[in-house]
Each structure stands twice: as structure tokens, then as C-alpha cells.
## 1
Amino acid sequence: MSENEAKHGRRGFIRIAGTAALRLALAGLPCVLRAAAPGKLRIGVIGSGRVGGTIGELWVKAGHEVMFSSLDIEHDRKLAAGIGSGARAGTPKEAAAFGEVLFFAVPYAALPGLGRDLAAEIKGKIVLDASNPIPGRDGDMAKAALASGTGVVSPQFLPGARIVRAYNEVGYARMRDDAHRAGERLGIPLAADDAQALKTAVRLVRDAGHEPVVVGGLARAREFDYGTPVFGRPLTAAELRNALGLKP
Ligand SMILES: NC(=O)c1ccc[n+]([C@@H]2O[C@H](COP(=O)([O-])OP(=O)(O)OC[C@H]3O[C@@H](n4cnc5c(N)ncnc54)[C@H](OP(=O)(O)O)[C@@H]3O)[C@@H](O)[C@H]2O)c1
């Protein structure tokens, strides 16, 4: 074993031992203090606006560690401080490096540049992509993306990422206000080609308090793109399945 490996091994042991001690200490406290710690994920949010801020906060509340990033680090520091333990702020590069899972919630026109700037960090990572092409905001590139379908175009902008289209079709206020609601939950359509990435997205949608609806491979993401009949409609999972012609 090299010195470096030994050092990392020791650090790893100290970290694990520290975590175990913390868990033991927390075990004696009322469970309302902390939600699901086991299996928590490190998530990097790229674009901590309405959607990124909302979903990132729901994931922190579910026990995950989230780094928020945007073009305005001061905004992200305040956001993270307001959310509290489990939330932190960084640059997009830092957030992309921090997260084992990444959540992109930026104007679609920002995706190509981010894909180039963060190429090394996003390679091989699970990326939940909420970004929508809106022609009135993103211009001609949005029209082209809608013509091909976002499930085909986003992977071209974020090469090497294991993309799941997620949190695209419903407004952020419903995502926030209907999280963990009683009765049938808000349905969130998902499309992915990577089975493991899809599994992680399913879990994260449930952790945020919504109900995942797996539509199919990335090519089928166009069925809930901007301009489709389901876009902008807060539907239950059953209603979404029905509207998209999926098996109940
Ligand atoms: N609003 C909704 O209800 C909704 C629902 C589903 C999907 N979407 C889609 O999700 C995406 C985000 O929507 P939103 O409503 O959350 O927008 P928003 O509130 O304007 O937030 C966008 C975020 O992206 C950041 N950003 C922009 N360019 C960036 C870049 N080059 N690098 C890093 N961060 C960048 C912004 O940072 P600064 O503030 O510092 O510029 C901001 O934090 C859009 O594509 C939208 O169409 C929106």
C-alpha cells in the first residue's frame, strides 16, 4: 500500500468512525430532527433558481447533501444558509465535482457552454436535467432542440453524462407546494437510457415527495417537452400515465 493509499485509508476509517459515532448520538434523539441519513447522496445543483432551489431544498430535507451553484455565489450562499445543515454553495465547477448526482436547472441556452466548461466533471455522472428549451427565451437553439426532442439534444450538450430528463413538465411552485402531499402525489415524468441513472432518479423523485412516472428511453422525453399536451399540467402519476398512453 502506498503512503497516499494508507493516508486515505486512515482518513476513510476516521470519517466512517466519526459518522458511526454521529449516527449513534443521533439515534438517541427524536427522529423529527433528521430524515433519511442512510444512503444519502451528494448532489450538485447547477442553476439554483426556482427549480434548482426548490428541488435541492427538498433533497436536503430528505437527508442528502446538496451544493447549490449559479452565476451568483452570494445568492447561493444565502440560499444554503437559509436551508441549513446539508446545504452548501459553490461555483458550478465545484458543484459538478462535488455531486455524485447532478441536477441541471438552467436556461437551455446555457447547456452547451456548461457542457464544455464542466466536461471533465460531468463525465460518467448521473445528471437529472430539468432544463427546457423555450424559444421565447433561448432563441433558435430551442426551436432546433424541440424539433429533435430534448432527450436527443441534451446528451449532445452534456457528453458522457448519464442523463435523465426529470422535473421538466410542471411548474416549480407545484413541485414545492405539493411535495409529500397526502393522497395521490404529483407525478413527475422521467426518461432515460441508463437503467442505473433512472433508478437513482426514481429514488430522488420519491425523496423529494413526488411520484416518478417512467415514460421510457431518452427519445421519449419529447412526449413531455415544452408545447406538448401534458406540459405545464400538474397531474397525478395515474393521470400522467393515462395522458401519455402508458400502462396503468
Ligand atoms: N420555472 C418553472 O416552473 C420550471 C419548471 C420546469 C422546468 N423549468 C426549466 O428549468 C430551467 C430553470 O428554470 P427556473 O425557473 O429555475 O429558472 P431561474 O429561476 O431563472 O433559474 C435559473 C438558474 O440558472 C442559473 N444559470 C443561468 N445560466 C447559468 C450558467 N451559465 N451557469 C450556471 N448557472 C446558470 C441562474 O443563475 P443566475 O440567477 O445567477 O443567473 C439561476 O440560478 C429552465 O430551463 C426552465 O425552462 C422551469
## 2
Amino acid sequence: MELDWKRLKKRGGKLFMELLQDSRYTLLYDHRLPTVYERMVAVKNATTGGMIRLEASSVCQLRCPACSTARGKNRRGVIGWGFLKFADFAKFIEENPQVKTIEISNWGEVFLNPELDAIIQFAYEKGVYLKAANGVNLNTVSHATLENLVKYQFRHLSVSIDGGSHETYRLYRRKGSFNRVIRNIKTINYFKEKYQSPFPKLNWQFVIFGHNEHELPLARELARELNMEFRPKLNHTPEHSPIMDKEFVRKEGGFKVASRDEFASVKRRAYSRPCTQLWDSPQINWDGKLLGCCVNKFGDFGNVFEDGLNNTLNSEKYQYAQKMVLGLAPQRDDIPCIRCKVYRTQIAGHTMEEPRAREKLLALVQIGCHIKDKITELVRGG
Ligand code: SF4
């Protein structure tokens, strides 16, 4: 039997990424073994390149009621209000050839950055993949930029559309236009057809609220028609527009649960715990401040544009934070995480000693099982 090496390599790469995803919970949270996870990330970085989060814009034009950008909180704090400059981006890429993937969306709307076209083109020329998986609202974007997304192989766009009609969409995405967003998606699809390109891959991100839950089936159908992957998301502010029909959301949301709290009690792990980004994809603010993760808006760990990426990641403060979020070191006042809800509700008060030999062995056995599953899947062609 002749082996299809190209397919095997592609499938193997995907399975390795899945292995990393599975292992981060086992290694970091269940057994608190960051050094083993660090080694796995190093292997991945050496083979497929490293990933960084570098926000292109903290500025947004919409007024979503539960968002700290729209409410002006971020503008007055560490995140500030501004755009990644092309000159900083180009210098960062030249100085860090190990970085091969960059997530550019976080607090703001990337399409408002006046130098975005230059950033997209430069990344393409340097062989760096860009993605905006955290989310874009896609309300304000030129025809030329939509074409550049396809022409320069922007990898992945997650479009935040919390509804299947303008009447519902505008209740949360205030100042936005459902019809304009759909038109922009159709234009991207037109260019994908023209250039015969699968990129950017498109996601329809639907944050489930009480006011839009009834439109889950409608939005799913529209996403299918627009060749987008439909990704419902449980909202992080359940007090804003609370879920009304829990049973319906359990069925239509795809999680079998209706809230993040319910997810945590059923799955016995947090719905979202972005602390892992400290290891595998650190967040950098548009002005170069190292934030560590996409949630941190409380303080920084130095400036990457001024002091270099590796120096900043290797600083005592950053490395202490890594131990602290695993509960391996007591809380310290200068670490931004102490003001974070994730730290306060899931980590604080659970400090433990470094794992002993038996716990390490147990973790390695579990990782061995993950690896065995992935190899079986690869051999079976699953
Ligand atoms: S505790 Fe909060 S701020 Fe700190 S790494 Fe985790 S999610 Fe980020």
C-alpha cells in the first residue's frame, strides 16, 4: 500500500495541535507540570513555528453594552486606545523569525487600523499567518481590504454576529448593521471564488443571550449558506440579557448546557481559562506591552517593542505569574492576575506544593494515552 505522505503530514500536524490542546488541561491544570508542557510547546514551535497574539487595534466603533472597550474602561487603563503601527509590526517580525502565526484581534476592531493593508501584505511576504479568531465586527472595511484578505491569504476570520436578523443583531451590536456585515461576507466569498482560495476561513461567532437565543437555528442556516462555520458561544456576562429558555439553548447551542457555570459543573473544568496563553501564545498589546493573556487588562510585564520578546518573556515577573496562575506560588501584589476574575474564582486559595514523583508519573501516563489515541486516529485515517 502506498502512503500518502502529504496527507499524513497535514493530518499529523492537526493531530499534534489537538494533542497540545488536550495536554494543556492535563499538564497545567490537573497536574501542574508546566515544564513538560513548555517542552511540548517548544517541539511544536520548532516544527510549525510559534504563535503570538499581537493586537492590531484596541479602538472600536460599536457600543456593545457588556463590553469594557465600548464602556470606555479599557481606554482609561493599560490597554489604552490605539493601533499597532506598521513600523513596530515589521520590526517585530524581522526580530522574531520563530513567530509564524499571529492572532491580531482582541479588544478592538482590527479593520479600523489605517495600516492594516500594509500589515497583511508584509506578513504574507514574510510567510507569517495572520488570523482574527477572537473576533471582528466587520462593519467598517474597504473593498480593497476585503480583497487583500483573500489575496494575501489571511488565514482565519471570526465574525461576531449575535443574531439572524438586523432587529435582533442591533440590540447588542449597537451602531452596527447586520445587512452591511452580511454584504461584506459575501464580498469576501466573491474574492475567494475569484482567487480560487480557501482563505480566510470564516466563522460565524454567535454569543448566546436571552434576546437572541430564538434565532440560533436561523443564524446557523445563514452561516451554512455563506459557507461559514457556525460557532455559538456562552456569554461571560449572564446578568446581561439572561437566557430565557434553557432547554432550547442546551439543544440549539451545541454545548448541552445553557451557561458557563453549568458547563463548569457538568464538565468539571472551566468553560474558558485563558491562562494557558502565557505558555503557548502570549498576548501583546498594540503598543508593545506584554499582557500574557487576552483577558489581562490590569497590568503588564514590560514592553516587547522596547526590550525584545525573549527578554520580556524571561523576566522574573512573567515567570512568577506562570507559577502563580497554576497555584504553585502565593499571590503577589505586582502580578496583574490578582485582579482577574479567573484568578480570584478558580485559583486563589488553592496554592499547592510542586508535584511529587507519583503525580508526575500519573501525568505522563495520561499524556501517553493522549498520544496513543492520536496515533491510532492517524493510522486509521480518522
Ligand atoms: S489569571 Fe486572568 S489575567 Fe492571569 S493569566 Fe489567567 S486569565 Fe489571564
